[in-house]
């Protein structure tokens, strides 16, 4: 697509494709996590998800992986630490840097959290063909990459 034709196109893309879908998924996950007695938010889940894939990373690595700014990440980690999902440990080679590790509770929550997210995503994508899903994923990745360059 070269250019948007009019303001209505821009409003439609922003409000429906990005804002409303993202908000709906977050609300669904928030409710489903709560129903499953998981005491974290969808935003906190993104941090836990990164740690489940690679435990013991810096706060900056988590910022880079989740595309969150440092103050937001600090708040997320503070709350996850208060809830006993993660712990900060000073890096042995650079005590100014904290490494973020999962606690036992953080590790144990992975299976149930993944079940909740998988069920919610299956509900969200019901009726969407695999081809349409792959195309949507590809398009959104291109849009993200286009924007990421200007935001770094």
Q: Average pLDDT, to the nearest integer?
A: 88
- What oligomeric state is this? single chain
Structural class: mainly alpha
> Count of helical segments?
7
- Gyration radius, to the nearest Å? 18 Å
Looking across the biggest beta sheet, what order are the strands in?
A: 1-3-2
The description of the largest β-sheet is: 3 strands, antiparallel
Helix content: 55-70%
- Terminal-residue CA separation: 24 Å
Summarize the structure.
The chain is mainly alpha-helical and 152 residues long. Helix content is 68%, strand content 8%.
Textual characterization of the structure:
- 68% of the residues lie in helices and 8% in strands.
- The chain has 152 residues and is mainly alpha-helical.
- It has a 3-stranded antiparallel β-sheet.
- Helix 1 crosses helix 6 (110-124) and helix 3 packs across helix 4.
- The mean pLDDT is 88.
What's the layout of helices and strands?
Blueprint: H1 7-35, H2 42-53, E1 57-58, H3 59-66, H4 70-82, E2 86-90, E3 98-102, H5 104-108, H6 110-124, H7 130-151
Antiparallel strand pairs: 1-3, 2-3
Helix pairs in contact: 1-6, 3-4
Give a quick set of tags describing it:
152 residues, mainly alpha, 3-stranded antiparallel sheet, 3 strands
